[in-house]
Amino acid sequence: MSKGQIYSFENQSNISGFSLSFGGCFWEKTPQSASNCKAVLFDNASANQLLNLDDDETGDLSFLFTIMLNEFSKPPYINHMDALAAYLKIIMIKLANVKLKNDTTFESPDDILYRRFLEFLSAGYRTNHTVNSYADMLNITPRRLNEICKRCSGTNAKEIINGHIISEAKRLLQFSSKTVKEIAYDLNFKTAEQFSHFFKKNTKTAPADYRKAFVDIGVQ
Fold this sequence. Notes:
Layout: H1 25-28, H2 35-42, H3 55-73, H4 80-102, H5 109-124, H6 131-138, H7 142-153, H8 157-175, H9 180-186, H10 192-203, H11 207-215
Helix pairs in contact: 2-4, 3-4, 5-6, 5-7, 6-7, 8-11, 9-10
């Protein structure tokens, strides 16, 4: 379930299993290929997220949750969080495969266009930053694209585009040795100053300060 979604169980239900909660920062730290899992599982907030598992799928996921819980319960050690993130990524891949195999959710024309927009965005956000360009790819007007995004996600198209750019910028600042200027170039900004202004406007933090916050962790 995505943030803001709810699910209720019928009265007299016997519930057992695992509850796993994680933040959006997980996707910022995973390879770009993992965004496919995110799109399948979480980007269509209007879809029913209940997945029906067969016996083999239940066994696989129960095993993964069990070993992840055991790992979580261990005393912290170097790269402890990386190990947990690795298990979480495997779980997300498994769940995305189940969703794709069993997905019979009806998609309206707007749902289909929204998903195509996310596919175009996932492939092109590094170089393509404008609502107009994605609207052209979909053969609709920018206003129509914004209406679709608002209905399907609660945010407009520009906010979704900026979110993808910011997530990649954060990942590069945290996990690469590239300079701010190089990151700006990678994300198709004309100058480092233009990128810094964009990053600070969307995060309230300058890129250099964002990187320094992670470099300083554990120094003192």
